[in-house]
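Case study 2.
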Amino acid sequence: MRVKALFKEDLCYEDSHSWLKVEGDLVRVGVDDIIQQAAGKLVYVNPLRPGAQARRGMPLISLEASKWVGSINSPVTGTVVVVNQEVLRKPSLVNEDPYGRGWILLIKPSNLEEDLRHLRCGEEARKWFESEAQRLLRKVA
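Prediction:
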């Protein structure tokens, strides 16, 4: 059985299923379609707060869902600038639109060039994403 998850080519992905999009001197961060499908309907999203220091590879966002409770790691090191208040009020936005209205925070990275070396972007990201979708979503299908 082949399972599907929405992949966005203009994003970079971290192994714990966070994504980032570079927007000037900030990065927009959220969780990918694979993890939101595997987790089920989100009921609670708890990211680091504005002013907090995010560290690449360390917990950034705690999630609670119908099928899963856990954390997603930060794709970059830097300072949290903005948290999407709409997602805090309505966590299911992450399920409905993980790459759009369901974004979670904006971070001002301290060394984006270095952080990008540790992420999957472009064709490498696509191959990893397809493999991860099959591995994780087949378990919950």
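The chain has a mean pLDDT of 93.
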